Amino acid sequence: MVGFKKLAKRHLLGGRAQGKLATLVLGLLTANFTASGAPSEAPGASPGERSAIRAYCSGERTALAQNMCISNQLVLVRRLGRKPDLSAASQQQRAAIRDACSGKRVPGERFACERKELTATGLTVGNEPGGGSLQMDMAATAGGPQEKPVGLPFFSLQKWRQERPAMPVARGNEVMSSAALFEKVGPSVYVVLASEHAIELAARTEHSQGSGVAITDKILLTNCHVVAGRPQISVSQDGKTSRADLIYADPGGDRCFLSVDTMTLHPIQGVRRTDDIRIGETVYSVGTPAGLERSFGQGLVSGLRQWEGVRIVQNSAPTWHGSSGGGLFDARGNLVGITTAIDTIAANINFSIAAEEFWP
Known about the structure:
By secondary structure, the chain is of the alpha+beta class. It has helices at residues 47-57, 63-80, 91-101, 107-120, 157-163, 178-185, 198-203, 224-227, and strands at residues 4-6, 8-10, 15-16, 27-28, 141-142, 189-195, 208-214, 219-222, 232-237, 240-250, 255-260, 282-287, 295-307, 310-315, 327-330, 335-343, 350-354.
């Protein structure tokens, strides 16, 4: 996937990205990005950790949801503790530990329980052999001589499925003119700024800039690489600004949800299902390329792709740095995708994560 570039605007020199969609990303960025192992490989996990996480996530219906589950579980294991080495325990002690922790279905919670029980026996607690570093900085990070890993908080997919807003149903209204379409969908696309510190965000010095698409009057979709490692987030449109919070993140799938405090957003009218999209149909991009708020462009769906289970809408609608998290719409005003990446080698090859993928 060499040649693909994220489009979040970063007012910093240097940068890199790791994770599932690391090579498919757009925000205003001033440096190239690289990719590392996909979440499905559970990089750095020990054999026991990998087996437990894969078993826990095997019930997910799609490859995307499985990768999302695996990446989240790796973050949780790193937070709660690695799987302990039980080789020094006797057979009776290992059986007692298994019984004590059998009710813990989540791998990270079970490993933490095993460590606690092992400590209670008086034995030294060490990590299971065969594991490496669980560095899960899957989204864009600031570059420099000494890069420090930054990432996103852990969120439970199972819990989020119970709390998230329903996917807006696609509308079958008549095809609109370009001007009428922009009047309809333009108000749903916002500027997203993110920084590590509030003072930087206020001064707009070292910050990341992308876009976001409102799906309710308080919640927006965006790309995780726009906000990763930058907890100070704001959302703005036409001079009005609100503080925003990250309420769900899938770093492996580069999909994040934001919630605003003091603004009432203008939500999209519907989300088009991916199976209904046809190559050759007209689509329209709305975003903040090069900092130009709500720029509007027209193109065609030029391909329907999958990359490791993620459905991607390839298109020729104008896109550039700062467009990350912006919307790709059909001629009826339905959201088709979230703008994510461009091909830096070939012209007019842009990529959006299919909007439906934000509801795995």
